[in-house]
């Protein structure tokens, strides 16, 4: 049954306006973005199918374009709406990161990194450059690798940190496998990069392993 045939009090859009977005399920919020369904399938039906296929909203909003377009009822227009919603969320977090003290409010940086890179299917290495006041100067993707590894060049990290006039750096990389535990190679690389940064008076304050659900901190483990 099309959503337009539902009682007004049950329609997602009307419920959002009257009660607020917080009362809606993931499927209802997604249905509002999709707007319409297909023959015999409402927008809610499509939303539920997509969430079942991609497991979560995050998985859906970060899925490859070619995989999204394989979903019944999801064409270029709906895909553009979903991409815009994901980018709005990312930019809101970016604003929060830029305004916060990265060390006093570490969750702002972690949430941003998790949303931006936690769902990536390729391992990506990122540097967050901080000022002497611990404000974020820039977030830069240093390299992108395969499903299981990424190459990081010490020279490029040092060069970029100096260009940004950074006083300190937070490093991060994602684990597409979802494994939250840092590998031995991760720990060895962190030691190497920390020593290299210290030679130019730049402090490595943390290295984060990012997944879809959490960020594992080297600093909190006592490894820095």
Structure described in brief:
Helices cover 44% and strands 15% of the residues. The chain is of the alpha+beta class and 224 residues long.
Structure characterization notes:
- There is one protein chain.
- The longest helix is centred in the middle third of the chain and has 24 residues, at 76-99.
- By secondary structure, the protein is of the alpha+beta class.
- It has nine helices and five strands; from the N terminus they run H-H-H-H-H-H-H-E-E-H-E-H-E-E.
- The protein has two domains: 3-89; 101-217, Cytidine Deaminase, domain 2.
- Helix 2 packs across helix 3 and helix 6 runs antiparallel to helix 7.
Strand content: 15-25%
Shape: elongated
> Mean of residue pLDDT?
88
Distance between the termini: 58 Å
Q: Which consecutive residue ranges, at least 5 long each, have pLDDT under 50?
A: none
How many helix segments? Answer: 9
The strands making up the biggest β-sheet line up spatially as 2-1-3-4-5
Q: What fold name stands as the CATH topology of the largest domain?
A: Cytidine Deaminase, domain 2
Give the number of DSSP strands: 5
In CATH, the homologous superfamily of the largest domain goes by the name: Cytidine Deaminase, domain 2
Largest sheet: 5 strands, mixed
Helix content: 40-55%
The CATH architecture of the largest domain can be given as 3-Layer(aba) Sandwich
Our Rg estimate from Cα atoms comes to 21 Å
Order of H and E elements: HHHHHHHEEHEHEE
What is the highest CATH level, the class of the largest domain?
A: Alpha Beta
Structural category is alpha+beta
Keywords: Hydrolase, Metal-binding, Metalloprotease, Protease, Zinc
GO biological process, one term: proteolysis
GO molecular function, one term: metal ion binding
Family: Belongs to the UPF0758 family.
């Amino acid at each position: 049954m099309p959503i337009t045939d539902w009682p007004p009090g049950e329609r997602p859009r009307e419920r959002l306006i009257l009660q607020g977005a917080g009362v809606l399920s993931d499927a209802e919020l997604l249905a509002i973005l999709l707007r319409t369904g297909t023959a015999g399938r409402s927008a809610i039906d499509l939303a539920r199918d997509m969430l079942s296929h991609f497991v979560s909203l995050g998985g859906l909003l970060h899925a490859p374009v070619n995989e999204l377009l394989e979903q019944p009822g999801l064409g270029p227009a709906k895909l553009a709406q979903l991409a815009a919603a994901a980018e709005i969320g990312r930019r809101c977090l970016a604003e929060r990161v830029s305004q916060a003290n990265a060390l006093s409010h570490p969750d702002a940086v972690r949430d941003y990194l998790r949303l931006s890179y936690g769902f990536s299917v390729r391992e990506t290495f990122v540097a967050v450059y901080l000022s002497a006041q611990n404000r974020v100067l820039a977030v830069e993707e240093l390299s992108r690798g395969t499903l299981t590894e990424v190459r990081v060049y010490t020279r490029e990290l040092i060069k970029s940190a100096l260009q940004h006039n950074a006083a300190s750096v937070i490093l991060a990389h994602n684990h597409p496998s979802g494994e939250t535990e840092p590998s031995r190679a991760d720990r060895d690389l962190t030691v190497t990069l920390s020593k290299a940064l210290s030679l130019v008076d730049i402090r490595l304050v943390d290295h984060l392993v990012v997944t879809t659900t959490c960020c594992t901190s080297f600093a909190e483990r006592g490894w820095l």
